[in-house]
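Task: encode each sequence below as structure tokens.

Item 1
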Amino acid sequence: MKKTRILWSGITGRTGTQALIACDNCEFAEIVAGVCRNNAKYYTYNQLDEINDDFDVIVDFSHKDSFDKVLDFALKVRKPLVSGTSDITEEQLKNLENAANIIPIFRGGNFRFEVEKFINDVVDFAKSYDGKIKLIETHYKTKKIPSETAKVIAKRVFDITGKVVEIESHLEYDDLINDWRVGNLHCRVQGFEQLAKDILKIANMIEHQKPDGLYDLNKILNK
């Protein structure tokens, strides 16, 4: 089986570090080169045009200040992009949406397959529930809230059922724990190990898609 060759932007971050480990036992994807702000082992964002490694997909989990350079580079080389950089501006998001008509781009508030199942369960719950729908999320203390996943849940429920989800966010955990509850439904994920594995799988999937607006897990799994 041919592996999806990945250029990983933000390679020295928590997710990139775990992805490097995950590649040791991955049968369908490999990281062939990395980009970061300053590390002699990898390319920097001023060296994008100097990259001579062959790659199939760009994964970007870096800083919003590097977002424009990565997107411009992806368009220049016409490679699919998995965009996970947070806190981008409305203008940057619009540029990403426009680019998604030229190259395949995955941009989701959720990158975890386990959480995607939870989101679908919440939607099913909302379809038949007549009361107020409250999402209670509890995260590690440095997490930005409301989480992107909470926003995805609220949007998905509203788009499908027309019902509003009230989000209640808490920062309590010292460990890297993310926790969501709606009624009797519960989803908890911990650390970045499984997240990195899921992103490798997404990179493998987006390699084989055609430009069709922004992809998320719901869209790519139903293709």
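Item 2
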Amino acid sequence: MIGTWGHGPGVLSTLNQIPDEVKIAGLARGLPEDNPQELRKRLKISGDVPVYENIGHLLADAHPQVVIVSTRLDQIAPAAMAAAKAGCHLICEKPLALRHEDLDALYDAVKIANVQCLAILGNCAHPVLQAARKAVQDGLIGDIILCNARKSYKFGTGRPVWFGQRNLYGGTIPWLGTHALDFIESATGLRFTTVAAMQGNMSHPEYPDCEDHCAIILGLTNGGHATISLDFLRPNGAPSHGDDWLRVVGSRGIIEAYLARNTCTLITENQPPVELALPEPINFFADLVRKLRDNPAALSEATVSAFHLTRVCLCARNSADRQQVISVPSL
């Protein structure tokens, strides 16, 4: 793993549950202030796992097959490009890049090296979204017409100072919006064609470039539409850190999926609301690593999705900055 910040430690924690299948080859600093030793102790990683001062030393000495990139957001793309050029599959903190040109360069590096690049977006495996996806695939609500998604977080007190700097943070739409887009894509199988967005900061002036609320409207590939609401305004007294939900409106019914409440409801004209059965939780990242080991080509669509969702977020941020409706280019 490169870096110690973000969701990467959570991925390592899940991989610790399958020690006979995965060997951690090394930890590298993504930034000088990183403390891999503390991370190793916290996650109970073997003391035999070496710690490297930089990315180059890790890649040259450990020769990993898979690299987790989990560092400050402006450093994700350059670290991922270095690992891709070394022939490593990637599991990256999101967004994959903060600028379109960096996303293009990473995409080229991944394609040339014939490796997979996946984003740390595990919510698609959440039981309620799995249930929603199955209901859509089974045709229970007909044709998809409209989707509404919400991603709401507590801002808390531990946000890094660099969250207030656009060149390091990139904006709340790329940071939070990727999740909400993933809700919609994973449940419906649809992608995004156009986007219009607005954003602002009205309650966190000490973080001037960290938008605390965003609103997004999107066109879907089937001609339908979607809306997304993002905010850092969830009260500290709320029972959970996040309040995330997805509503999918079809021609013959509606699905309402609440991630924090762990409920997925089907509403149709012919019967009262039904609580859909939820599948058992899965170790999503362990399954990803197994596929990267056994059949990486099976994840090519997931790689395309990771780049598409990042592209949509960058277009949405540009839309909010410019006050324009923007078409999302294809890969």
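Check on item 2: The mean pLDDT is 96. The chain has two domains: 8-119, 127-282.
End of task.
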